[in-house]
């Protein structure tokens, strides 16, 4: 519990790093952060005009939360190639793709607001197919309807998310298959 004396029109920063770490350590527990702002007469005083009431001057509480990912992940070498947007590589390659949920209008996602998803693109020439025996056999057999080998994710990983469900409960979940870790011809 923390008390802070406020002056009108001032921002207050509260570090909740340890509290959020505890949430992630015990994801199945029903934990919460409660923020109560009162004036000296115990009246709620952190308010802004309610957006749906232009004429009756109704007010609603306002709090802004921002999250920052400070994790530094170690990277492992992979068989697939990594390229950049400016790369001249035409073979199957993993390219960076930053996904920003706010740009999609997905305001129900609390964190992360954006993440690195990556994507696969490029050609799969015959010489590249030797690494993947199944793809090589399909290429040789050329079954009807087969468009030939294509560049696709070979390994994917999950991301952890905080989001609101339909009942506005805050949910912590691990969503599989959200990050392309390596690409190859399939």
UniProtKB/TrEMBL annotation:
It holds the Pfam family TGF_beta. It is found in: Secreted. One of its GO terms (molecular function) is cytokine activity. Gene3D superfamilies: Cystine-knot cytokines. GO terms for cellular component: extracellular space. Keywords: Cleavage on pair of basic residues, Disulfide bond, Growth factor, Secreted, Signal. InterPro entries: Cystine-knot_cytokine (IPR029034), TGF-b_C (IPR001839), TGF-beta-rel (IPR015615), TGFb_CS (IPR017948). Residues 74-186 form the TGF-beta family profile domain. Belongs to the TGF-beta family. PANTHER family: LD29161P, TGF-BETA FAMILY. This is TGF-beta family profile domain-containing protein. It comes from Parnassius mnemosyne (clouded apollo).
């Amino acid at each position: 519990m923390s008390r802070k004396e406020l002056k009108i029109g001032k921002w207050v920063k509260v570090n909740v790093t340890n509290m959020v770490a505890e949430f992630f350590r015990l994801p199945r527990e029903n934990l919460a952060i409660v923020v109560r702002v009162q004036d000296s007469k115990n009246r709620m005083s952190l308010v802004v005009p309610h957006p749906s009431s232009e004429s009756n001057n109704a007010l609603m509480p306002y709090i802004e939360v921002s999250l920052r990912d400070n994790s530094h992940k170690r990277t492992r070498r992979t068989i697939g190639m990594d390229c950049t947007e400016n790369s001249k590589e035409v073979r199957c390659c993993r390219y960076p793709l930053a996904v920003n949920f706010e740009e999609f209008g997905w305001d129900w996602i609390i964190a992360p607001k954006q993440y690195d998803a990556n994507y696969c693109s490029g050609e799969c020439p015959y010489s590249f197919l030797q690494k993947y025996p199944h793809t090589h056999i399909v290429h040789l057999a050329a079954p009807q309807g087969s468009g030939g080998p294509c560049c696709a994710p070979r390994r994917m990983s999950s991301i952890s998310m905080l989001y609101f469900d339909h009942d506005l409960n805050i949910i912590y979940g691990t969503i599989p298959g959200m990050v392309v870790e390596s690409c190859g011809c399939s």
